[in-house]
Amino acid sequence: MDWPKVSTILLNWNGYDVSKACIDSLLPITYPRHEIVLIDNASADGSGTRLHAEFPGLDYVQNDRNLGFARGCNVGIRRAMKAGADFVLLLNNDVVVEPGFLEPLVALARKDESIGLVSGKMHLMGTDNLLWYAGAQISRIRGNVVVDGFRQADDGRFDQTREVGACTGAMMLIRRRVLETVGLLPEEYFFGQEEWDYSITVHKAGFRLYYCAESLVHHRADGSHGNTSPKIIYCGMRNRLIFQNKFLPQRVFKVWLAAYSFYVQHIAGKRLRLLGDDLRAYKLAHSAAVRDHRKHGRLYVDEEDLLNFEREFVLSKLA
After folding, report:
1. Which residues pair with 34 in a beta bridge?
2. pLDDT by residue (tens digit) across 32-67?
């Protein structure tokens, strides 16, 4: 078979160990026409230059600042497109792949030109076959995604390849024609929810999204950050506001925001079992996110926004 060229986009940020493990798993894969584009997002720990020195055969890009996920990956996607990639594979650096994971993804995409995005089965690393992704659907009213099989046993229920509503940015094969037609990843988000946005946009453009059960990788999850960090909570809040503001009618968005704000301030703490500083960070992150979303008058988050909120949270503890 004449296999098309696939360029894997691998973004590193202060993550030498996980990025090295990912690269080590990618180098011996069985797919015949594959290259890795390694982008370092201005790591402060020297991990980018260290990886470049250890893997000199990779196409390496050094960003001069932390651009976040989508903007950082887009640097690599442009490079891959210029080099003639037929498909681009987004892969989180905290993923370890199986040797034959890529062939099923490409084979599925080649069956139908209307298939624009494909994600494979993802196990949660360090568990006994617990799933991290086996397909997903986007809830437009809630402003979140429902992942099929999340933290459930991989017991055969998710072994059917099928069309889905959302692909994961942790492992997303993108057809070149999608990039040429729709464009690159949406850059409004610093990290998180860009794959939901892209899934909706690609589907609206007439392409279909698929989950490929025959492709398997292992995902550590949260390889570059922790979910409990105040600035990460703030980032998630800002991203959700941007996503809903972008895709809901404005009147519906205002109703959704009021309901969501009530939920955060009065219900979420109990449901999520948040106490002390965690509960305070959650509520303060939401208030700051709503304030900044309105103040800036823009659908855009960058690293400075996160750092500003982190300083605000620290000062609030001293007050």
Report:
1. 6
2. 999 999 999 999 999 999 999 999 999 999 999 999
Tell me, letter by letter, the H, E, C secondary structure of the chain.
CCCCCEEEEEEECCCHHHHHHHHHHHCCCCCCCEEEEEEECCCCCCHHHHHHHHCCCCEEEECCCCCCHHHHHHHHHHHHHHCCCCEEEEECCCEEECCCCHHHHHHHHHHCCCEEEEEEEEEECCCCCEEEECCEEEECCCCEEEECCCCCECCCCCCCCEECCCCCCCEEEEEHHHHHHCCCCCCCCCCCCHHHHHHHHHHHCCCEEEEEEEEEEEECCCCCCCCCCHHHHHHHHHHHHHHHHHHCCHHHHHHHHHHHHHHHHHCHHHHHCCCHHHHHHHHHHHHHHHHHHHHHCCCCCCHHHHHHHHHHHHHHHHC
pLDDT at 223: 46
Whether the predicted model's global pTM rises above the 0.70 cut: yes
Distance separating alpha carbons of residues 231 and 233, to the nearest angstrom? 5
CATH number of 6-219: 3.90.550.10
Joined together, the tokens standing for residue 88 give: 């681009």
Is the CA virtual torsion 219, 92, 12, 309 positive or negative?
A: negative
Residue pair 78/184 in contact by the 8 Å Cβ criterion: yes
With CA atoms as reference, report the closest residue to 134 among 192, 211, 209, 197: 211
The residue extents of the domains of the chain are: 6-219, 230-318
End-to-end CA distance of the chain: 66
Mean pLDDT of 147-154: 94
